[in-house]
Amino acid sequence: MSPEGAGSFFRSRWQGEVPIDRLFWRDMLLVGTGISIASSVVALILLGLKMPLGLVLAVHFAPVPYNIFLTIAVWRTAEKSGAKASLMLLGSALWLIATVVI
After folding, report:
1. How far apart are the C-alpha atoms of 92 and 85, rounded to whole Å?
2. What are the pLDDT digits (tens) for 74-87?
3. What are the CA-CA distances from residue 84 to residues 26, 30, 68, 78 (Å)?
4. Cα Rg for the chain, rounded, in angstroms?
5. Local confidence pLDDT in tens for the 102 residues of the chain
6. Which CB contacts under 8 angstroms, 24+ apart, belong to 54-63?
7. Four-residue CA torsion sign, 63, 66, 72, 77
8. What's the pLDDT at 27?
9. CB-based burial of residue 35 (10 Å sphere; 0-12 exposed, 13-18 middle, 19+ buried)?
10. CA-wise closest residue to 39 among 25, 52, 55
11. What is the pLDDT of residue 59?
12. Distance (Å, whole) CA 1 – CA 27
């Protein structure tokens, strides 16, 4: 992805230009969860290799800022969406808690 592409990706989600369904289901639940799982797996491997705990924790929690961004983007987009958006608000909050805790 080009630098303009990355900026466009974040900007379009922040400004609520992406449909709430795509933002919630694909970007947050599918991609965000995949990134969080991959990060946790790498952190467990590093822990098994007896790497410093600070490095393990840094790798494990690296996706948290991205996950927070996605959750806020869902909230911002839900303000412009219909009734089902309230369920997505709750789902995104629970998802954020789960990705940080697990």
Report:
1. 10
2. 999 988 777 778 88
3. 16, 19, 21, 9
4. 15
5. 555 678 899 999 999 999 999 999 999 999 999 999 999 999 999 999 999 999 999 999 999 999 999 999 999 998 877 777 888 999 999 999 999 888
6. 61/100, 63/32, 63/35, 63/36, 63/39, 63/99
7. negative
8. 97
9. middle
10. 55
11. 97
12. 16
Q: Looking at the chain, how many residues does it have? A: 102
The type of residue at 79 is: E
Q: Which amino acid is at 97?
A: I
- Using CB atoms within 10 Å of the CB of residue 76, give its burial: 0 to 12 exposed, 13 to 18 middle, 19+ buried: middle
For residue 31, what are its two tokens?
């991609």
